[in-house]
Amino acid sequence: MSWDLGDVVPLSITIKDADGQLANAGAVHVTITTPDGVAATAGPVGPTSTGVYDHDYETVQAGRHLVRWVATGANASAFTDAFDVEPADDGDFVSLADVKEHLKKTGTTEDDEALRWFISAACRTITDRMGAVSPVTMVSDCSARRGVVVLPTRPVVAVTSVVKLPGGDPLPAADALAGTSGWALENTEGVLSMPPHGQVRVTYRAGRSPLPPNFRLAALDLIKHLWQGSQHNNAGGRPMLGDSDAIAAGLGRSYAMPYRVMELLGLKKTQERDEPLVG
To answer: Which end of the chain is more exposed for a tag (fewer CB within 10 A), N or C?
Structure first.
């Protein structure tokens, strides 16, 4: 499972002797390496009970954390583990409550943490194909070609600033960009004034607001599809494919995104790639 930024992660290790029985070590230390590569060691950590050592870690960074336990002296041993911390805004654009209602799981909380992981996976899958969904601030270094800058993340809600590189001098007409829609910025009057060529750093907001209802339904259906595919049915096997999904799977493509979801997103499925529907 992953943790939210600011959570206190309960870390634990058990030490055993040569006979496999719980036993204390001479000394136990735990080293946590944060996503920026900085390692900090805590200890010696005292036993909570015989052979059991606990350490609570308050998260301050998003990303993968490496945990290294080292026991020295009597019953020396070592153990390496890892945990992930989600950013405060991870781009999810449907709520846990909406998903539970869609799955008919209201009134129970036993699967909440697992469902949150499926929500993140489904929202990221859609974002990878469709561009930003939840509005997010982006900073992109771009090359201008004949006075045209094409931003890598779309659709663009508004542009905050454009500066020339190197040096960071703001372009005179940068203020006129506020409220620009689309994802290609052209060197036209009142939009962007800049040399025909060069490097620029653009700060902008990309995403969709309000959330289109077809995106919301696509996310809910994709989460349902992924969740049901992870659950065993009563006979001990996996759920059967529906007719449309069986056809899509027959095209040699992954079954991760069913055809219904692709239609809701305006995609068509081919043997080569997912393409936006035209016309």
So the answer is: C
